[in-house]
Design brief:
The complex is a heterodimer of chains A (about 280) and B (about 400). With about 280 residues, chain A is an alpha/beta fold. Helices cover about 30% and strands about 20% of the residues of chain A. In chain B, helix 4 packs antiparallel against helix 5 and helix 4 packs antiparallel against helix 10. The chains are: A alpha/beta (about 280), B alpha+beta (about 400).
Chain lengths: ~280, ~400
Amino acid sequence: VLGTYKEIVSARSTDREIQKLAQDGGIVTGLLAYALDEGIIEGAVVAGPGKEFWKPEPMVAMTSDELKAAAGTKYTFSPNVLMLKKAVRQYGIEKLGTVAIPCQTMGIRKAQTYPFGVRFVADKIKLLVGIYCMENFPYTSLQTFICEKLGLNMELVEKMDIGKGKFWVYTQDDVYTLPLKETHGYEQAGCKICKDYVAELADVSTGSVGSPDGWSTVITRTDSGDSILKQAVEAGIFETKPIEEVKPGLGLLEKLSAQKKEKAEKNIAARKEMGLPTPY
Amino acid sequence: SERIVISPTSRQEGHAELVMEVDDEGIVTKGRYFSITPVRGLEKIVTGKAPETAPVIVQRICGVCPIPHTLASVEAIDDSLDIEVPKAGRLLRELTLAAHHVNSHAIHHFLIAPDFVPENLMADAINSVSEIRKNAQYVVDMVAGEGIHPSDVRIGGMADNITELARKRLYARLKQLKPKVDEHVELMIGLIEDKGLPKGLGVHNQPTLASHQIYGDRTKFDLDRFTEVMPESWYDDPEIAKRACSTIPLYDGRNVEVGPRARMVEFQGFKERGVVAQHVARALEMKTALARAIEILDELDTSAPVRADFDERGTGKLGVGAIEGPRGLDVHMAQVENGKIQFYSALVPTTWNIPTMGPATEGFHHEYGPHVIRAYDPCLSCATHVMVVDDEDRSVIRDEMVRL
């Protein structure tokens, strides 16, 4: 249920600054920053801060400081794939890294297989970090949760998180929660038929599920992904623990992944029943 | 006397026919060259659309020089909307065109290789063409977004400036390419001169027309001196006149030559005429264009704005965009009013050359005819402006789209 992989570990960044900025273990920021510093990539397309609070815009980061500015999960879509071409063209990057949710990962892999409209672009992607994703919300949905359901102002939000059956919102002084039940129906329509929870086509996938707070579960999937993570661990960028020794452990990840697949299968079957097209 | 017909003429872009009357010794007494490519009609397609549509659509006129068409189109609309393009935007446009000149001339060397390159050098020459094209197209990819149909050449300037990393990378790459281009140009000129084509082949007495050494300058193209006649009143053979698919543009009432040789005559005091001179001018122009591209990359400010704000409603002013395409002066005219294109017309390089090319074959053996034609590097796809109205007898008439 976790796709093809080489190894699974629990890890976190050793950089205190990244720990503070990051959503969980700081894997995406740490790994891209390491690849950047080592010249494995020359730049990375990440979800940077946008004009509105919590509405990210894709950004080409060419230094680790720029990467840090983009750290942390945003629960609405950042069209990073759109920016890949510009990163290779106007930015002149020949070795590119990026971070993507499962659906974007599929899109990128497809572009690499059939490079229509991305001539000399798809082959420049050297590191694709995938993040676990159960569903993604349109920006207006986030506004509904935070402004209407919780009565908060977007500007005051410091961090958002999903875990333990709740949608968490952190402000400077307080923590608010919303049961996940209340978020149902507000996700992007496509998420309902998506069977990929753990970015099965990425070089390296990561997310909090399965590891303790402040740590992330990291799955290496390709030779290049595996060797970059090993080098980074060796260089002391990350500390790791065997996944078997941490709580709640792999079981939870497998359970959620299986749930997403199962739910999607049902929705796909229902759509087929109604004669609606589905991409699977 | 006898009539020799080559239809279609080969190793050129698009379809055309060369009809030569020859005397008993095979010497051409009368040469006529005309387009038989079907009409594109793109000017009609863009009429009534938003101005941004025009550059995207007209660049599809042809895959050989989409870049000059895109540039001429945005220049024409810039002019109609009275837009002043920021300096960095102008430099990036010029860089795109300079790189395209290098690429396009290299393609022509591939087309004429069987005429001049001996078998033992063929592989070298073709590899050299490929190497040059790869690098030139890389520049267009990076600066204009896409090598074939550039997406980032926009009304008002360019979509984006390039980054410092990209600038340095392009600069280094073109510097590295320079010895390669020099060597290639030397090889081609050497082979062309050693071929022993008869002296005076392709020489004609028509004037040359060019607006700028590399980029193009609308102030050097005077619309009042331009007239256009239909093929019926130009070709003295009614059969040919009926089938010819392009109008005959005249400057000061005369047909002209445009292209690399014309540019060198107008701006560098080049005196040579004829087939060999045209090839030499084309080869030398690769060096000029490359040098200009390197110079632009050296002076480009990558933090400067590249696109001006503009009001797209327009005042109905007739805007003119004059771009020196690899094959010669490419003029697009556009009129924008109420946010829509009211009128659009493209007056393209090979259209200028068509009436000059036929007579240029005269006075030599008809076997040299194709040499004369190829020296102009004709590209017919965009040149066609009149439509076949009767498929039975294949006659053509003036279509409204050419009316000025």
